[in-house]
Amino acid sequence: xxxxxxxxGGSGFLGQSLAAYLTQRGYDVxxxxxxxxxxxxxxxxxxxxxxxxxxxxxxxxxxxxxVNFTGKSVNCIYTRKNREEIMRSRLQSVKVLTDAIxxxxxxxxxxxxxxxxxxxxxxxxxxDEESPHGTGFSVEVCQRWxxxxxxxxxxxxxxxxxxxxxxxxxxxxxxxxxxxLAKYNLGGTVGSGRQYISWLHLDDLNEMLLWAIEKxxxxxxxxxxxxxxxxxxxxxxxxxxVMNKGWAPPAPSPVVWLxxxxxxxxxxxxxxTGRNCVPKRLLExxxxxxxxxxxxxxxxxxxxxxxxxxxR
Length: 312
Description:
It contains ten helices and 13 strands. It has helices spanning 13-23, 80-102, 137-151, 175-183, 202-214, 232-242, 253-264, 269-272, 280-284, 294-301; strands at residues 4-8, 28-33, 43-47, 65-68, 110-116, 123-127, 158-164, 166-168, 196-197, 199-201, 220-224, 230-231, 275-277. It has a domain at 4-169 and 199-227 and 275-291: 3-Layer(aba) Sandwich (Rossmann fold), CATH 3.40.50. It is α/β, with parallel strands linked by helices. Helix 1 (13-23) crosses helix 5, helix 2 runs parallel beside helix 3 (137-151) and helix 6 (232-242) packs across helix 10. Helix 2 links the parallel strand 4 and strand 5 (110-116). The strands form four sheets. Strands 3-2-1-4-5-7-11 form a seven-stranded parallel sheet, with helices on both faces. A two-stranded parallel ribbon has the order 6-13. A two-stranded parallel sheet has the order 8-10. Helix content is 36%, strand content 18%.
């Protein structure tokens, strides 16, 4: 009998990738989405609102695991309304999924929450799972999110929270806009270039999520990122090398601020801040990275990647 895995908010970039990864391995995948319900092969989509119990909760009964990706995208300008929705969407989805699991006669074995490394704020200090948290709005969101996830005990369900880093994948996600910039010779250093990017290949993230679903000894909080974070300057230089692009002009902080607000319609801090995180607990548990090296990861993801020398 197939193991059924529920992906709440799974219609986005990370959820779609995990759904494909799981179906290839024989799982029955159900995605809870704000869009309409529809039967599909091999993935079913079931409507929910992320806030209230409803017919969707029947899918939780007897399922193998629940993975929650729900939350308004942070890729926006942080107006008061957007801040409220960023916070509320995360807290409400955790609450209602916990309610659904508690109501089950046969609850899932694992409840996996997709969190964020943003809890460490903007720092160049090396951060593992036990490092102190930062300050600011994003940090507050992460703290309250994690508190909500662990607040209520689920006696028969193991809880795992993965603080996900800068996930690199094909056909979407954070890498795509950076590739477009590099394509038009605009892929220079952003801001000071000293802010860290804690990156990982999407294949490695999917394997981490599978571990969280299946490994009974895995519980609590894990940094879901690669073992070798790099500065923005190094990241952009490696991206240009892989795309066979030479030097590109840097984007000073004032230019980034203007571009973010006026063109991209997003928060400038997303590009100008970073964190230097490592996956200490995953490494201690024996996780092996398929793509520990940035250049190797980018070559796998970018079509017709060049083998040219590193541009200076």
